[in-house]
Amino acid sequence: MKYIISLLLSLFTLTLSGAEIKAGTGRKSITPQLPAWLTGYAVRDRPSTEVLHDLWAKAIVFEDKPDNRVVIVTTDLLGLSHEICEEVALRIGKKYGIPRANLLLSSSHTHSGPVVWPCLSTIFDFSTEDMNAVARYGQKLTDDIVEAISMAVNDLEPVQISVGHGSADFGVNRREQKDNQVVIGVNPEGPVDHDVPVIMVSASGGELKAILFSYACHNTSSNTYFINGDYAGFAQIELEKTNPGVSAMFVSGCGADQNPNPRGSLEFAEQHGKSLAVSVEKVIKSGDLKPVRPPVKTDLSLVSLDFLPFDHNFYQEELLTQDKYKQRRAKLMLEAYNKGYDVTRYPYTVQVIRFNRDLTILAMSGEVVVDYQLKVKKMYAGENMFVAGYCNEVQCYIPSARILKEGGYEPESSMIYYGYPGPFADNVEEKILGAIQKVMKHSGVRPTK
Question: From 234, 316, 377, 417, which residue has the greatest number of CB atoms within 10 Å?
Answer without folding.
Answer: 234
